[in-house]
Design a protein that fits this description.
Layout: H1 2-30, H2 37-71, H3 77-83, H4 115-142, H5 145-152, H6 155-166, H7 173-191, H8 193-196, H9 203-235, H10 240-264, H11 271-277, H12 282-309, H13 312-333, H14 341-371
Length: 382
Amino acid sequence: MEIVQEQQLQNTEDRKVHDSHRNTSVTQQAQPQPQHPRFRKYKWWFRVSLYTIFVLAGQSTATLLVRLYYNNGGNSKWMTAFVQSAGFPVLIPLYFYLPTQTQPNNNSPKTKPKIFTLVSLYLLIGLLVTGENIMHSYGLQYLPLSTYSLLCETQLGFNALFSFFLNSQKFTAFIFNSIVLLTISASLLAVNAESESPIGLSRKKHVVGLFYTLGGSAALSLQLSLIQLSFEKVIKRKTFSAVLDMQLYTSFIATCACVVGLFVSGEWKTMDNEIKEYKNGKVSYVMTLFWTAVTWQMSCIGLVGLIHEVSSLFSNVIGSLALSIVPILAFMFFHDKMNNGVKCIALLLAVWGFLSYVYQNYLDDRDKRDGLEVPKSEVEVC
């Protein structure tokens, strides 16, 4: 009898040990295993590539659609500024596809920014977006599309200046060379203003378009540098939800400001006639504005994502690459003249300046790879 009891006790102990090992194994399987550095690097490159595609496809398509709006009878600057930010609701469904877990340090009261700070930040950047949108609207209406795109290349120079003061970006010989070339390119286009004025527009409006485009480029560069500074100093969250928050809230503020501008300027009174007189009809009018709004948001989420993953400087370089594609598309779809000698020289100088900037980014990236096994901006999607 005692032998039987001892055997039963032994069997019970064996089952407990077996269950303990089994639970430990299950627990270990349930815990997330650390990812290999090379796999994390590939994920980072995938995100950067995806954001780059968003910028290239979104910005070039949106610019062409705005030009199409003006060519077919559209005349409202505040409406085109409005659609540049009004497409933000298309990003809301992305929140439902984000995992619920967060990084532990993100919830710490010491690292979590105050509500007032965030509201002030989003308000400042949102109003800056409004100013940039309205200035670019004037530029797109008063300039040929190829001239507008070349002038927008100057945002690289503005970005170098703002990044130097706000993001501790160093000045190098290649960046200085890029700024000089882009400045000469813009100056050539300004001197050539009279011969490049669109049909039906005075030289005065053409010059106004030049200055508004330069102002819009400066505003965009300042906006990108401020966003990078916000991620580093205020938000301090390495998550994709932080990118969505930045784009959604600033776009909402910019949209509200554009609605106010639409009513204060009195342009809302002419909207009925504009829709009726639109060359391709009401459906074409609505669809042009709708897809303009969607593609602008596609471009913006790409720009903000590149700032988050890399830097405002790199984001601006990709945006400038998209602008370099626009003159070719404008020649194909809108028959913009590219046989003007001054414009061709300006295009070559802009491309040269762009390549100088890209090469400097390549050198910076190579230095980082020499010192780090994975990219510094490597983050987890949350």
